[in-house]
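Usage

Read records sequentially. Each one opens with the input sequence:
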Amino acid sequence: MEYIKAAISNIKQNKGRTVLTMLGIIIGISSVITILSIGNGMRASLNESLDNLTNGAVTIQIDTKKTNKYLTDDNIASIGDAVSQIKGATPSITVYGSVTLRNTVGVRIFAGNTGYINEFDMGIASGRFYNESDIDSASAVCVLTEASAIYLYGSTNVCGMTLPVDFGAETNGELTVIGVLKSTDDEISGARSILAADELGYIWADIYVPYTMVTDRFVLADNRFTAFKIYPFSGLADEAAARSVAVAENILDVRGENAVRVQSFASFAEMYSKILSAVTLVIALIAAISLLVGGIGVMNIMTVTVTERTREIGIRKSLGARTSYIMLQFLTESAAITLLGGMIGIMLGFILSRIIGSLVDINAIILPRDVVIVVAISTAIGLF
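and closes with the structure output:
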C-alpha cells in the first residue's frame, strides 16, 4: 500500500510529465480497441446480412465436370425425407427474362417446389404460395415479393393480375399472380424510391414459380436437376449439408468422387470473415506500434525519475532498504502510469468506436477479451 501511495504522490507532483508519458499509451490502446471493435462489428454485420439474404438456405450442386448424372424431383424429395436436420428441400432453377407493363423490368424467375416457402420467414402479405396441385398441373402461377410487385405494378395489391414474361429465344408466357410475400419496410420504401426515380434498369424483380411450370410448360429445362436447396434447422447447417451431400452421392452412386459440393453463403461468409479478421489484425498490429512507443516513453521517464531521485535512493539504502524494495517502488509507479493510461485509452476507444460505427452504420462490438489483452500488453511493456 505504501508503494501505491508513493506512486500516486509522485504522479501528482509531476502531472504534466505524467500526462505526456501516458499520451502514447492512451493513443495506442484507443486505436487498437477502436480498430478491433469496428472489425468485430463488420464481421457480425456481414454474417447477419448473408443470413438474412438466404434465410439460412444451403445450395448443393452437382459438379457437371465430374459426372453427367443428375437428380430428379423424386430424388430431391427423398433427400428431404432422409435428412432430419432440414425443414425442406427443393429443386433450384433460376431463369431470367423481362416483363413489360408500365415499364420494362428485368426479372429473375426462381423455380422450386413447396419447400421454397422456407426461404421467406416474414410470411405472406396477401394471397397464397403455390401448392402441390399447382406443381402437379404445371400451373402458370407465380408469387412476388412486395418490393417486386412495386417494381412491376407500382402497387402491392396485385393478386389475380396477369404477368407477361418474355423469357427470350421466342419463349413468352403469361403468369397469374396468386400471392405476395412480405418485404421489410426498408425494402418497400427503397422500391418506391427506385420507381419514382425511374431507375428500374438497375434492378431485378424476383418471381417464384412451381418448377414444373418451367420444366413442362415452357420447356426451359427438363426434369434433370443439378442443384437443389435445403433449409436446415437453426444451428444444424453444417451437419445438414454434410448429410444431404452423402444422401445425394448415394443416390447418384458417386461416393468418393467429390462430384457433389456445397455452395452456400455460409461458406462465403466464413471466407470473408477470415479475410476481414486478417486485415483487422494487421491494422491493429500497426496501431499497436504506438503502444510500443508509449512503453518506451514510460521507460524513458522512469529512467529520468531514477536519476532525479538518486539522493533519495542513497538515503533509503543507507537506512537499510533493499534494492528489491526500491525497484518495486519504481515498478509500482510505472504500472500506475500504464494502468491509468490504459483506462483512459479504453474509454476513448469506446467513444471513438461508437462514433465511427454510427458514421459507417456498423454496430461496433467491443469484446472484453480484446480489452484485457491490450491493457495487459501495455502494462507489460511499461513494467519491462
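Summary fields computed downstream for this record:
- Residues 39 and 64 are 38 Å apart (CA to CA).
- The chain has a mean pLDDT of 79.
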